[in-house]
Amino acid sequence: MNFRYQKFPVNTENCPFPNKKSSLRPIIEVDFETQLGNLGYLVLIDSGADYCIFHAEIGGHSRRYMVGFSYDMGKLAYGLLGQDGFFDEWDVKFEYQKENIELKEFVGR
């Protein structure tokens, strides 16, 4: 599966690069099946995060992967996909120059 990097505007007040207007982030949408239909949820693919952590408000949905839920996530616009629960299940290839993220699920799991 291939996904595009998402472009976000830069806060020029705290950016050390005066000419920078936007930043690319490896954010994808994952779907949850609910009784009311599918729920799309944005997550940052974060190789520096130890765990997958989502907003507590979406907790309780059936899921296949190890995910923690936190009310403290309310400060962020998206959840995190980390080492345990995501990188240990998927082969992730970041192609920043092409603005592409390639995901391949490990076979045999």
Q: How would you describe this protein?
A:
It is a single chain. The chain is mainly beta and 109 residues long. The protein has one domain (2-9, 23-105). It contains no helices and ten strands. It has strands at residues 2-4, 6-9, 22-25, 27-34, 37-45, 53-55, 68-70, 79-81, 90-95, 100-105. A three-stranded antiparallel β-sheet has the order 1-10-9, with no helix packed on it. It has a three-stranded mixed β-sheet with strand order 4-5-8, with no helix packed on it. A hairpin with a 4-residue loop joins strand 9 (90-95) and strand 10 (100-105). The chain is globular.
Write a brief structural summary.
This protein is mainly beta. The protein has strands at 2-4, 6-9, 22-25, 27-34, 37-45, 53-55, 68-70, 79-81, 90-95, 100-105.
List keywords for this structure.
109 residues; mainly beta; three-stranded antiparallel beta sheet; three-stranded mixed beta sheet; 10 strands; 0% helix; 45% strand; globular
How is the secondary structure organized here?
Blueprint: E1 2-4, E2 6-9, E3 22-25, E4 27-34, E5 37-45, E6 53-55, E7 68-70, E8 79-81, E9 90-95, E10 100-105
Parallel strand pairs: 5-8, 6-7
Antiparallel strand pairs: 1-10, 2-3, 4-5, 9-10
Q: Approximately what portion of the residues adopt beta-strand conformation?
A: 35-45%
- Tell how many strands the DSSP assignment holds: 10
| Shape, per Cα inertia axes | globular
Question: Sheet with the most strands?
Answer: 3 strands, antiparallel
Average pLDDT figure:
89
Note the total helix count: 0
Give the H and E element order: EEEEEEEEEE
- Ranges where pLDDT stays below 50 over 5 or more residues in a row are none
- Structural class by sheet pairing and helices: mainly beta
Assembly form of the protein: single chain
Approximate helicity band: under 10%
Amino- and carboxy-terminal Cα gap: 18 Å
Report the radius of gyration as a whole number of Å.
15 Å
Number of spatially distinct domains? 1
Strand order of the largest sheet: 1-10-9
